[in-house]
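step=predict obj=Acetyltransferase n=266
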Amino acid sequence: MDNGLATAYLARIGASRPAKADLAALAELTERHVLTVPFENLDYHLGQEIHLDERVVDKIVHQGRGGACYEVNPAFGLLLEALGFQVEILSARVHRPGGLGAPLGHLMLRVSVDGSAYLVDVGFRRNARRPLLLGTEAVQYDPQGAFAFGPEREGEFDLFLDGEPMYRVDGRARELGEFRPSLWWFRTCPDSPFMQDVFCSLPTVEGRITLKGHTLTKRVHGEFTVEHLADDTEVFEAYHKHFGMTLDRLPDEPVRPAGTPGIAVE
């Protein structure tokens, strides 16, 4: 990533260029990214290609969009590398209601700073706002909750949030191209949770705001309010007001089979 694009990326997330690639800078950049770049799957339902390369940076920086883990985490990794951080890609299997998901089902980053390694994830439904220190099972408190890693078994270890398992991390460094078959499945299979819902979600300092179809949900200090938007005009306005998106058209609403849970973003 060239210097000009890195500068534009920093402006997009409201962050200053750090003087050095240290933990304080990593924490600030991670939190700014989480609070400004939505976790969303609109392109899955707009018929757009999902990119596993620097093209997603243009989507985030110049189109004011977000994405899911295969997009926003590699993009953030490119920014971090441009700022002098050492970054590796990791994979995980997501804990779902029906059991543990497939390998390479989630992508996140391992960032090394001053001899220590941290898990950084800006592309999950309830990811930590700040880096999580790897190599410890101690509870790590974050504005999103209490995170902890489980014991390592055969190179894998679970990440828990408030005592509930989120995903099982594989500690081996991965290449981005290894995720292409998984992305194809998420992008095309009717059973994919990304194909069963249209969602856009963003944490806030007070909680979270989520738009799923015509339903806008706000969580403020643990209290939920749900608003059913009357028409497409209100949906367009909600995308712009709450997520900074200006869309040419709305994504197609999927037809989800009865009893299918979709993806949880709260």
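step=describe
The chain has a mean pLDDT of 93.
step=end
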